[in-house]
Write a structure and sequence with these properties.
This protein is α/β, with parallel strands linked by helices. The chain has eleven helices and ten strands. Strands 1, 2, 3, 4, 5, 6, 7, 8, 9 and 10 form a ten-stranded parallel β-sheet that branches. Helix 8 runs parallel beside helix 9 and helix 9 packs parallel to helix 10. It binds S-adenosylmethionine, 6-(5-methyl-2-OXO-imidazolidin-4-yl)-hexanoic acid and iron/sulfur cluster. The site of 6-(5-methyl-2-OXO-imidazolidin-4-yl)-hexanoic acid (DTB) has 17 residues, from strand 2 and strand 7.
Length: about 325
Amino acid sequence: MAADASFESKQDLRTDWTKAEVEALFALPFNDLLFRAHSLHRCYHQPNTVQLSTLLSIKTGACPEDCAYCPQSVRFETGLKKEPLMEVDAVLVAAQEAKDNGATRFCMGAAWRSPKDRDLDRVEAMVRGVKAMGLETCLTLGMLQPAQADRLADAGLDYYNHNLDTSPEYYGKIITTRTYEDRLDTLKNVRAAGVKVCSGGIVGMGETETDRAGLLHQLATLEVHPESVPINDLVQVGGTPLKGVAPLSPIEFVRTIAVARVLMPKSYVRLSAGRTTMSDETQALAFFAGANSIFYGEKLLTTSNPQNEKDRVLLKQLGIRTEGAAQPSHCG
Ligand code: SAM
Ligand code: DTB
Ligand code: SF4
């Protein structure tokens, strides 16, 4: 959050973006787009600070959904070993380790279409335990009903992650077992329960730039912008239908981050999955373009993430600190 909020302009915080405006941002010369995104970034955020979130898969594999990118779907032969819902104590051990490594948020993910009410007792205990350690809590469990969102809010949940994944137009090519509307409903239920919304998507799935614009347009025209916007670069996993799709160019990836920053200036934009195959230079550009959060820790949910030491070296080289330290405003 900016140290001096007086620079904030209501004009920046719009939820009435048109699709044409979003497409026009994508079409800007790269330098113009990055200048605009970075200038806004400096007004709303500390420019040399990133927030660290650590992920843990609390229930792995055997998911009934057919998300074409996902190694956890029961429909694809990915060689993943399924694991039942973890015990609370084991989750708390992982959370403590994440905290000791410098993460400020612990995100627990389950390979469910939606949680069963009976599973929520244990998940609530996880949330309480992680929160008691002084970490922010985040869950991603699939679709949530209003009463389930209320239960998690009562347990002290800070964030719920539920991605729109792609544009409404491309969505049917990626997932057939739940609709775009289902996803929007879950976001509404989370918001109504008073839990902060983490929602973004995946790029590099063979979609067009218009689809990337469509995804960001959906996110930026929600009644309230998601507080956290993860932009995942597809991690291609053998056995999934998207294995072998042409990767997105790093320039187009950075463009997507920059447009997200311009559309949702106050939100945290997370440089999410896909960093193991991303150069330091691409990541540096993504931070310049407005990314101010990463997944930190050697595993995402089931696939790998950069080694902690590698990230520490990169952040040090860039003079980027991790969230927590007081710093001056750089707006203007
Ligand atoms: N099962 C729940 C759901 O889908 O809502 C929660 C877990 S799911 C794995 C969380 C998110 O991870 C997905 O919405 C998707 O955006 C992202 N994800 C999954 N597999 C990915 C991959 N191979 N590359 C990039 N992101 C991925
Ligand atoms: C998000 O947007 N990305 C994270 C988190 N939310 C749950 C998940 C990335 C998963 C990458 C593939 C895997 O490790 O299974
Ligand atoms: Fe299941 Fe979530 Fe993977 Fe889709 S993204 S297959 S819902 S775990």
